[in-house]
Design a protein that fits this description.
The chain has 186 residues and is α+β, with helices and mostly antiparallel strands. Helices cover 35% and strands 30% of the residues. It has helices at residues 11-25, 32-35, 71-80, 83-89, 144-147, 151-161, 164-167, 171-176, 180-183, and strands at 40-45, 48-56, 62-66, 92-97, 104-105, 108-118, 123-130, 135-142. The strands form 2 sheets. Strands 4, 5, 6, 7 and 8 form a 5-stranded antiparallel sheet that branches. The radius of gyration is 19 Å and the shape is globular.
Length: 186
């Protein structure tokens, strides 16, 4: 057995392993969220098999680009690369806005910091920030395992996931948000 490819060269084996990890944190997820939308694979590049990402070349044909990773890193790419499928498949049913003590950093303003509950289960944080000429948003799904922790430990893990340095909302903001603790089931 090749140490670099412990499950062989069949991509489905790696999708299955990544899905096992995904399912632990997102019980409502389906395997198709990884299988149908992945841009990763295993391909022979030159004379060797390699983990690759597929991107369209100038003619619109998928072309493999080698990834410098081992199988654990490859599984992590499969696991982490599907946030938009998770969000699309599980609509928001209710949310709570978290007021920030500080909404300005450099020339960026925090516009929205929202904890959301989803129809199929699970929670996410939605953050939107911008300045006069640019902006962006990001969704962070909160692993189910975090919600099984005591409140203080949850906050520790959550703030590792959604770092207050980047998004201006820190521990005190989370602790002082009226109704947040109950909204998250604590």
């Amino acid at each position: 057995m090749d140490k670099k490819f412990p499950y062989g060269y069949d991509m489905n084996a790696y999708i299955d392993k990544a899905f096992e990890q995904l399912k632990a944190d997102f019980p409502w997820a389906t395997r198709e969220m990884i299988a149908e939308h992945t841009l990763y694979g295993i391909a022979k590049v030159g004379s060797r098999y390699q983990y690759v990402a597929f991107w369209s070349n100038d003619e619109g044909k998928p072309e493999p680009y080698p990834q410098k990773t081992d199988y654990e890193g490859f599984l992590k790419k499969l696991y982490e690369g599907h946030e938009w499928e998770l969000e699309r498949a599980n609509p928001v049913k209710e949310y709570i806005d978290v007021p920030a003590t500080n909404t300005y950093s450099c020339d960026w303003y925090l516009e929205i910091y929202r904890i959301r509950k989803h129809e199929l289960g699970g929670y996410s944080a939605y953050v939107q920030a911008g300045n006069r000429s640019a902006g962006g948003s990001r969704t962070f799904f909160i692993p189910v395992s975090y919600l099984k922790l005591p409140w203080e430990e949850f906050l520790d893990k959550y703030l590792e996931l959604v770092s207050p340095g980047s998004f201006y909302v820190g521990r005190k903001d989370m602790e002082n948000c009226p109704g947040l603790k109950e909204f998250l089931g604590f």
